[in-house]
Amino acid sequence: MLRVRQAKKIAGTVRVPGDKSISHRAVMFGALAEGVTTIEGFLPGADCLSTISCFRRMGIEIEQQGDKVTVYGKGWYGLQEPEQHLDVGNSGTTIRLMSGIMATQPFHVVLEGDESIAKRPMRRVIGPLRQMGAKIDGRKDGEFTPLSIRGGKLEGIAYQSPVASAQVKSAILLAGLQANGVTSVTEPHLSRDHTERMLQAFGVSVVRDGLTVSVEGGQKLTGRAISVPGDISSAAFLIAAVMVVPGSSLLIENVGVNPSRTGIIDVVKAMGGRLELLNERVVNEEPVADLLVTHSQLHGIEIAGDMIPRLIDEIPVIAVMATQAKGKTVIRDAEELKVKETDRIATVASQLSKFGGRVTPTEDGMIIEGETALTGAVIDSMGDHRIGMAMAIAGLSATGETGIENEEAINVSFPGFEELLASICQQ
Ligand SMILES: O=C(O)C1=C[C@@H](OP(=O)(O)O)[C@@H](O)[C@H](O)C1
Ligand SMILES: C=C(OP(=O)(O)O)C(=O)O
């Protein structure tokens, strides 16, 4: 059990582990590229290690030591048919992006993962890939894992996605890179655009026109050096820690601040939080900055629409911050939360209520009452890394001691979370 005590103050200068989305893509694109790709700042969390292990099983040599990775790419068709099923562990990004890649390969592969992955919807990716000509099946007509994919020749499509999902967009664009003609994806709102940026860094031409992004088939990737910035989704827990513990301030260095990910910064500012971006720069097509965060009394706001995809993974910890804000916070248009590692509308409400938090789940979000004194409690991560970490942050504000069960899930995206938190907490 991870134990957290009420904190007197949060202070220091820290760095968070590498961006999960960018780390996955660096390994995948490196494996498909011609030549060597070196990655520094890689996230050695369980999800990205699953991506490495899948590509190793297809014959790609990958060296990994902590946050340093070298991928010996063999070109798009250098992958070999794996001897066994590929295990994506807990990682939705791995299975969905790999579905797009596997759809182009002239062999058969089975993708499967853990209990959580088995409950997450896959037809959103499998449907358009089938339209392109891939042979894919899974439980319930391709809705659930295991997914059996026999790839081959594909036709480009113009796909209108019903959801703003970077995983859906990326899977289709990756398949499109080997399809006949042009493949385009149009989304209802902009989702994170790391795939588009990193493909360009690997030498691919990607065309954006508003909410539509297109690639032409037959392009090749060229290996290169990638430096991965710290994950803003991990930094979000530390930002929230500062906001729930009066008198705190923290400098978080080297954080990715891609505008498609910075909803958390906009929301904290809109709630009255003090947060400054320092030393802004661009590394491998990705904006990066240091974040200076200072405690301030927050007030509740409404979060909805275009903002949601820009902070989807941060909603559990935003809910924690909202319990300490003046007034109520309303989150709408976030039904995607129901299909993450857990149903995050239900798990945020059930776990925060154990502290005395007042959260009303709704069909597409939640309503959080502010100015609620939290009492230390025993919480269950329910196997969801973001729930485990969000509740640990609630524990910093709650009286007495909080225990997080099933805390090992945190390793999915934030190895060293407990030690890092201990290093900035004054009790
Ligand atoms: O493409 C990615 O790296 C991710 C996309 C998002 O999922 P969706 O595409 O399902 O919105 C996000 O929740 C996930 O943590 C990572
Ligand atoms: C939803 C998440 O990741 P994935 O979809 O890759 O499992 C997450 O990290 O919060």
UniProtKB/TrEMBL annotation:
GO molecular function: 3-phosphoshikimate 1-carboxyvinyltransferase activity
Highest taxon listed in the record's lineage: Bacteria
Alphabetic keyword roster: Amino-acid biosynthesis, Aromatic amino acid biosynthesis, Cytoplasm, Transferase
Gene3D superfamilies: Enolpyruvate transferase domain
InterPro entries assigned: Enolpyruvate_Tfrase_dom, Enolpyruvate_Tfrase_sf, EPSP_synthase, EPSP_synthase_CS, RNA3'P_cycl/enolpyr_Trfase_a/b
Source taxonomy: Bacteria, Bacillati, Bacillota, Bacilli, Bacillales
The enzyme's E.C. designation: 2.5.1.19
GO terms for cellular component: cytoplasm
Binding-site residues, 3-phosphoshikimate: 20-21, 25, 165, 167, 313, 340
Protein name: 3-phosphoshikimate 1-carboxyvinyltransferase
GO terms of biological process kind: amino acid biosynthetic process; aromatic amino acid family biosynthetic process; chorismate biosynthetic process
Quaternary structure and interacting proteins, as annotated: Monomer.
Active site as annotated: 313
Organism: Brevibacillus gelatini
HAMAP family: EPSP_synth (MF_00210)
Binding annotation for phosphoenolpyruvate: 20, 92, 120, 167, 344, 386
